[in-house]
Design goal:
452 residues, alpha/beta, 15 helices, globular
């Protein structure tokens, strides 16, 4: 359809179109200039980040001296004898030499009774289960004194209290279920970027403060006194420079006495519980050949889920007199089978689930190996583990105070009701038959769960 305009209106319309075109062009030019300014600012920001990145990562990295090139037998912690620690994997010759030094005194400390050995696994916040089992066992009145106590990771934090006996249950209980217990999960300033630009996701100070709070001079003196009777308190860490498990004789450290001994005692406990990536590693100042070096130690579970006997010992021919008739109690602070649940389709979820699967599988394999070894030596092995029917929430969830208090109460109740200890065969045989339970029901105790 053709429209007819008066001549003046046509002129005005053309001027308006021209004015509009000029206005659009001006806006477009201003937009281009603004875009260029934004691009320039972005490039400057990226450039600044790239310039600062080496400084950030350099400052965040944990500066250290090089690792010692020598074997542990040639490396010393300044002021301490070599006997305070040894490599976890011994040769047969090394084990026989070690046994001649330590096991005869352990046997004497039993005073003619069967030797009792307590083995505490790692497990993060799930260590509240083991602590609860020990206190419930005391309440039952059947908890024996232990001639040897070993601990890895959170098991290392429990081990000194277990070693000293039921009279230290109050301190043990306080560490896991007190409302004033330190909150361990305090993120570093960079949040989730902390592992990228630093050494850990969480700050190390809360863990150190908790250890300092409970590993007191009084506890050190008590450990030294029991060690003088021939008993052994052993804790494992992982030396990241060698990838080996390192066993620390905590009684020998305590026997040295004084502030230096307390410093190392605490340092080893912190190292054994420092989960790689979550908490900072611990640097141990050592010397070899008159030169200073540093070793980097982390969670003992990184190399061994629990500590009982070096690998070569479990396949040695012959019998070890100390173990004939011995009672071995193994507390697994976690599941020996993963719960059936859908894994999220994300890299983080897959990596976490895979790591958990490796740890659980390693624990099952070690339980089988220890059981076969105990049977060959004439020892009686009993195992307490958290059944898959108890819903553990993962590392960060299990370290929350409410979760630890609930798990502590569960372990305490089940021990008091005599429903925690089973043979390794019963535990492993039940793993393949677990069917779960309704979430609203109270989680059954390990023995009850197996009996259903």
């Amino acid at each position: 359809m053709v429209q007819i305009y008066p001549a003046g209106e046509i002129h005005k319309s053309r001027n308006g179109v021209a004015h509009s075109a000029m206005s659009d062009q001006r806006h477009e030019q201003e937009g281009d200039r603004a875009a260029r300014r934004r691009t320039a600012r972005t490039l400057r920001a990226i450039g600044a980040c790239l310039c600062w990145l080496p400084l950030i990562t350099g400052c965040a990295s944990l500066s250290r001296k090089p690792a010692p090139p020598a074997e542990y037998s040639s490396v010393r912690l300044t002021g301490f004898p070599s006997r305070i620690r040894w490599a976890g994997e011994m040769s047969a010759r090394q084990f026989r030499r070690w046994a001649a030094t330590h096991l005869s005194s352990v046997e004497r400390s039993a005073d003619g009774d069967p030797v009792n050995i307590l083995v505490l696994s790692g497990g993060g916040g799930a260590g509240a289960f083991g602590a609860g089992v020990l206190t419930g066992w005391s309440q039952l009145g059947t908890r024996p004194p232990f001639q040897i106590v070993t601990g890895v990771s959170v098991g290392a934090l429990i081990a000194p209290f277990a070693f000293l006996g039921s009279q230290w249950d109050k301190e043990l209980s306080s560490a896991f279920q007190s409302p004033e217990a330190p909150r361990l999960l305090q993120r570093r300033m960079l949040g989730w970027l902390a592992p990228v630009f630093g050494w850990s996701l969480f700050r190390g100070a809360p863990l150190r403060q908790m250890v300092d709070r409970y590993a007191t001079p009084k506890l050190l003196r008590a450990v030294a006194a029991q060690t003088a009777l021939g008993r052994l308190l052993l804790v494992a860490t992982t030396d990241l420079d060698t990838g080996e498990v390192v066993v620390w004789n905590m009684g020998a450290i305590a026997a040295r006495g004084g502030r230096r001994a307390l410093w190392l005692f605490r340092k080893v406990l912190v190292a054994s519980a420092s989960i790689p990536g979550d908490f900072p590693p611990v640097l141990m100042p050592v010397e070899a050949g008159g030169r200073p070096f540093e070793e980097m130690h982390v969670d003992g579970s990184a190399s061994s889920s629990f500590l009982f006997a070096p690998g070569v010992v479990t396949i040695l021919p012959g019998r070890i007199k100390l173990l004939d008739g011995a009672n071995v109690y193994l507390i697994i602070n976690g599941h020996l089978r993963e719960r059936r649940e859908t894994t999220d389709n994300s890299a983080a979820a897959i990596l976490i689930r895979s790591a958990d699967t490796v740890l659980v599988s390693d624990s099952r394999t070690r339980v089988k190996l220890v059981d076969a070894f105990a049977q060959r030596q004439g020892a009686d092995l009993k195992v307490a583990e958290i059944p898959a029917s108890y819903p553990l929430g993962g590392f960060t969830a299990d370290l929350k105070p409410a979760a630890m208090r609930a798990l502590f109460a569960y372990g305490e109740r089940c021990a008091r009701e005599q429903k925690v200890w089973r043979t390794a065969l019963a535990v492993l045989n039940w793993i393949g038959r677990f069917r779960g339970h309704a979430r609203k029901q109270r989680p059954p105790c390990p023995v009850t769960a197996a009996a259903r």
